[in-house]
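Deliverable D5.2: sample structural annotation.
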Amino acid sequence: MKKLIYVRHLPVAASLAVLLSACGGGGGSSGTTPPPPPPPVGCGIQIVADATVAAGKTAGAAALSCGGPLTSIIWSQVSGPAVNLPASGTPTVAVETNTVGTIRLKADAVLSDGTSASATTDIAVTAAPVGSYVTVRVDHSLRPGTDSSVRAWPVLSGSDTLTSITWTQVAGPTVTMNTTTPRVMMFTAPASTTDVALKFRATMTTSSGKVDTDDVIVSLDRQAATPDGYIFQRTARVHPYRLGSAYAGVLARCSYDVSLFYKDSNNQNLCPVSTLPLLQAEAGLGNVPTVAQIMGRVLVSHDFLAANFEDFLTNQDVNGDFRRLLAGVTTVVIGSHVRPSFYTPGTGAIYLDAGQLWLTPEQRDVVTEVPDYRLAFDDALNFTGVGRMVKNNDYVLQGYSSTARVNRPAAELVFQLGRLMYHELGHAGDFFPVAERNLNGSLSIWRNVVDRITARSLPSDALAMQYPLTSVEMKGLGQVMYIGATATTLQKSYTAAQVGSFFASDVASDDYAYSINGTDSSREDLAMLMEEFWMAYRHGVQYDVGYTNKYLDGMTSADLIVAWGQRGRIGDPRIKPRVKLVLARVAPWINTAVVDALPAPIQMTPGTTWEQALVQPGMMMAGPSPSPLRDVVSSTALSHEDKVERTRKDTATSRHVH
């Protein structure tokens, strides 16, 4: 029996430290902070909140259990100027204030021993600040060991400009604050055996000499210890979106609970399929799940994320492809602190980064800004792998500045969220293809697939056997770029042109296919084929892939010189048979003959800039183009915090249990 292991090549906390040290280190902590006050006698829960806040600033309130951990909590407003509570199902809420008055909030909680507890708090909203001021978003709760961030938003008056922002910690167990990007403070939630509130303060100084401060509350939502063998070392609180759905009571316990573990087949607590089956079982074999059935399987940190997801399925899944692919999963987890997105056959669930689902500035506020832990893996290499999605010689994805409060059109989700879904559901379809969804209810999801993994009978295994990747050089570079292996002297010497020749000689559609873990030699290969095929077939989108000179902070797309590049590689005659093999197993409702219609790749001219290479003659034209968009690599320099978006590293990834 193969041992079940949760693959996380670097612990998030450790990887964050690597990232920060790679770009100049971070700030320091504020030293010893005062301990929290003792809870009142007979307390069930107590609330720590901002007592007074100026209109226009963000206030926060945190409910802390005085006894056992919180099982559930619901916030509501009792009186005062109406406010929105987007995180009403979490221990800490952020309140955007606009009107002078007193806001009274109520927290109703259920503790782990089944007892109920309630408490209220008042937040006095005073007159708006005069002149420039700063507000910090967003107050929230965390589980110990989880990486998170808060952002300071300067509001400048007239010709006033920002001089500095400094951070201090004013309450709670001391943490190490990283302020490499001054407007953002990142940290790792410390260990705690009790619920406790951390409080941080941002101090802004402007060119006019104005000094203003604002505080933010981050509560620690305690949890049990997680020794080796536990699947989720860190989680953030989520709740069922449809509380009355058939499986609402088991979704979290079976899919995203810190207590889930697997050490061997006799020492584990994974849920049997009879407790939480694949969506296919609920829809009925051969049937397509309804949107309502899917939404009954959603766990979410903030309800608006699930509402956006539901709208996406209702209005943008016009061919039912996502609903068919979702039949192969147990749960959809959408979390503010899920990063990167992933799928695991240990639970049969997909886990989606909330960064793909926000539509308004207030929704974006809740999404962690902690970067993808793989960001610095390729820093020692002498080239940069670049990629983008294009349609009608224009960018498909918009780049949204992290310092701007902007809306994102819902129509863009088909590209932003859609590609992620195609990728992660490609993984789900690999482990549980249409023909393999009649499962043994007495066994866990994992036990239903492990024999096929051992026998190497998954679709991705067939792909590797019939159409294997053969480039030794690219496999080695994949270990560096996506797994975190240390680059060798030879790998550090490779030029962009050399890497382009290595890649061109093989049959991968994207170099993320070389993200290989142990015997999982083709899992990402299959997922990238799925992602790129669906985006081309359904949406007329092609992927550019290229290798340029090494990217340095401050560069733009005009500074990156293409040594090798190609558009629409999915249409390469050597790759088309690979796509057909995958579709026949994972998406049998698609006639594989459609693959033949994919246009041949277009080769980019070496020596042109990445910016110039956007316009390619003879590219696939498929319907009207969306309004002209630009991704992050445009005519403006990239900040460190946006660097993750310049390469294909923000393509969906999966972390497997195997």
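Annotation notes: The two ends are 11 Å apart (CA to CA). DSSP finds 15 helices and 26 strands in the chain.
The annotation will be released with the project's public dataset once the embargo ends.
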